User: What shape does this take?
Amino acid sequence: MRPLTRIATMCGAAICGGTASTQPAGAELPLGRAMARAAGTLAGIIRMDARRISRARSSGAVLARRSRGTRQLRVYYRSGPRTQRPWYGAYELKLRTTRRFLDAVTISYFPTAASWGYGAPAQGEGPSYSFRLLAPGHHRGWRFSAADSFLGCGARHPAPGQCEGLSQALGFDEAQGRKREFEALFKQALLVVEKAERHAPISGENLFSATPHRR
Assistant: This one.
């Protein structure tokens, strides 16, 4: 099954009522349930991608670390320049679990140099993106954050070192956010994952453009 078909199927299960294995305490609010299902869906994708890469069925890198009951699993994909997207970048799909319960899941993209090692920090100009879900804990429910930015330095800037950029961020918890807005951003995150599996760079356009208008 092609990645896009698999992701679309998981998206349907996550938004339309599938189940996910997360923290023992169930989320009661509708948005909390949607966040829990989305986190379970992304966790499943990350584990599946890690297995495919480990079995040499896909190109990428897998880094795993365990410490005092907490395990971090990171899947990396590289992307190269394309038409109108002249930058190198890397995708990081990160899953953190504590005593086998889902703790956090993050999907991110950041620009890199042409020569870059997996796990090294971001560098260079281009777009950045992140989508993160945190499981309930310390008397708090599900929490969500997303951000995107773009840094450009090029022929339009004659002065050495002169650059321009833009950035925006959004975050809320299950008691304050809007379910429709979250679902739109979750679908966007699935599209980013699909680009990661194809090693295609994200564009410099506003990744929040699919979000319903906030009132």
Summary: The chain has one domain: 3-114+122-154+163-197.
